[in-house]
Write a structure and sequence with these properties.
CATH superfamily of the largest domain in chain B: FAD/NAD(P)-binding domain
Shape of chain B: globular
CATH superfamily of chain A: Folate-binding superfamily
Strand content of chain B: 25-35%
Structural class of chain A: alpha+beta
Strand order of the largest sheet of chain A: 3-4-5-6
Largest sheet of chain B: 8 strands, mixed
Number of domains of chain A: 1
CATH topology of chain A: Folate-binding fold
Oligomer: heterodimer
Order of helices and strands of chain B: HEHEEHEHEHEEHEEEEHEEEEHEEEHH
CATH topology of the largest domain in chain B: FAD/NAD(P)-binding domain
Chain lengths: ~90, ~425
């Protein structure tokens, strides 16, 4: 697997660290126990195309949203993860 | 048929052309008392224990490919019971005791070889942690020996003892640990289960569950038609989330790829199983002479049964740090298997919230050694509707209640276990 970083270009996998599925969102501070349990422990564990968070620690140190097929490892899109970096790119 | 020296001699006299099939390749019936999804080691062992220990013989094992084509044939064949936490310690020893009598029980040569497992330690803190684990094992009646440097040097003199960064200080040895022939474990359970009337149905993929008006599971839809069932047990580690999703369940599991490696055959070198404690590298030598080794999972979700280069490099670096002499041995084969990575590194053997559906999952990358124990306690759960005492902590709801079994102490992060 190689990931084409939007800031650095195509780089080998060893430069990146995986966080996981990009879909779960941290619940609000007042959220119920069920919501927190769901966020921390339960996973869709998708077999197919999934949006994921990857960290480019060996390069620009940006968080990236990578769209990847877990059945084939094929990467179809890479963009900056939501946050300050993405806003900078959008300017 | 019964295997013995006489059956071997008889077959030899006829040029080995008249061996009977090891098990019956069955066609599905309309209904079974228990249907097990997954014809790997755990599923086949469950079926055999149901038939032999619990008197339930109207059982089918459904396998989407051929039996043993998943992780049963992809692991590094290590057996051991050197766990330190309540829940794990007793369960893995139960499994080890079943390994010790498996070949007689099954009338099948699984090449169980108790050649010893040694975990090396490289710092004072790691020695203390291993001493604690060894003491826990001994209190529970399991063999464990803490070796100092001199004892390790005598046992495995070829290690790199001059490693300034990760000096070998000693090791925790379990002499009853070792290896077994992984394919033969699947074949042995299939053989013995089939002899007792269990139907082993290959190329039969489950595509859905049949539910009655109350939501109870009463059967499965498969690529070979509908099959009714009194109870359905899932033993599909690697694909647990996909099968559970057909029943509307979400699990505390991610599927990750783990790679394993075999070198070209060399003369006998490694006496048992060794693990490098400063990185993640475990190695044994097969009877054919190849070094069988592995390390970490790749660390990203995958169902692809193949891994990537960074982990191959990391594993080989671990091997080189431990014994630089293997640097000139060529890598022969490398492959990947899909692991059910649970959120605390321990398995789940429990009823599910869906009536009639039972779960055996979350084995991370340690399922092979558990094969007989897992089969026994899962059969117990299916037959009696209550957990065996040695599996009572492997609950599905422990992630909600906080009663987790986090042997590695790394928390709710599946790609670290």
């Amino acid at each position: 697997m190689r990931i084409v970083c939007p800031f650095c270009g195509e780089r080998e996998l060893g430069e990146f660290t995986y966080l996981g599925d990009a879909k779960p969102v941290r619940p609000a501070p007042g959220a119920s126990e069920d919501e927190v349990y769901d966020y921390v422990y339960l996973r869709d564990n998708i077999a197919g195309v999934m949006d994921e968070n990857w960290y480019h620690g060996g390069g620009c140190r940006a968080w990236l949203k990578v769209t990847r097929n877990t059945l084939t490892h094929e990467i179809s899109a890479v963009e900056p993860a939501a946050g300050a970096g993405a806003r900078q790119v959008a300017k | 048929m019964k295997y013995s020296i006489f059956s071997l001699a008889r077959a030899a006299l006829s040029g080995h052309k008249n061996w009977q099939r090891t098990w019956r390749d069955a066609a599905p019936k309309d209904r079974y008392d228990v249907v097990i999804i997954g014809g790997g080691g755990h599923g086949l062992a469950t079926a055999w224990f149901l038939a032999s220990e619990f008197g339930i013989k109207n059982v089918a094992v459904l396998e989407k490919g051929w039996i043993g084509s998943g992780n049963a044939g992809r692991n590094t064949t290590i057996i051991r019971s050197n766990y330190g936490l309540p829940g794990n310690t007793g369960f893995y020893e139960l499994s080890m005791k079943l390994w010790e009598r498996m070949e007689q029980d099954l009338n099948y040569n699984a090449m169980v070889s108790q050649r010893g497992v040694i975990n090396l330690y490289h710092s004072d803190a790691q020695r203390d942690a291993y001493a604690r684990r060894g003491n826990t094992m001994r209190i529970n009646g399991i063999d464990a020996e803490l070796l100092d440097l001199a004892a390790v040097k005598k046992m495995i003199p070829f290690l790199n003892f001059d490693n300034a960064r990760f000096p070998v200080q000693g090791g925790l040895l379990q002499r009853r640990g070792g290896t077994a022939r992984h394919d033969a474990v699947a074949w042995g359970y299939a053989h013995a289960a089939s002899e007792l009337g269990v139907d082993i149905i290959q190329n039969c993929e489950v595509t859905g569950f049949v539910r009655d008006a109350n939501g109870k599971v009463t059967g499965v839809e498969t690529s070979r038609g509908r099959i009714g069932a009194g109870k359905v047990g899932m033993a599909v580690a690697g694909s647990s989330s996909r099968v559970a999703a057909m029943a509307g369940l979400r699990l505390p599991i991610e599927s990750h790829v783990l790679q394993a490696f075999v070198s070209e055959a060399i003369k006998p070198l490694i006496p048992g199983v060794m693990t490098f404690g400063a990185g993640h590298f475990y190695v044994s030598q097969s009877d054919k002479g190849g070094l069988v080794f592995g390390g970490d999972i790749d660390g990203y979700n995958s169902y692809a049964q193949r891994g990537n280069m960074p982990v191959m490099e990391d594993v080989c670096e671990g091997g080189m740090a431990l014994m630089p002499m293997i640097g000139r041995v060529r890598l022969l084969r490398q492959w990947g298997g899909i692991m059910d990575m649970s959120m605390d590194g321990s398995p789940i053997i429990d009823k599910t919230p869906v009536d009639g559906l039972y779960l055996n999952a979350g084995w991370c990358y340690g399922g092979f050694k558990a094969t007989p124990g897992s089969g026994f306690v899962f059969a117990h759960l299916l037959a009696r509707d209550e957990s065996h005492e040695e599996a009572a902590r492997f609950r599905l709801d422990r992630f909600r209640t906080g009663a987790m079994i986090d042997e590695k102490g790394q928390g709710a992060q599946p790609n670290l276990h």
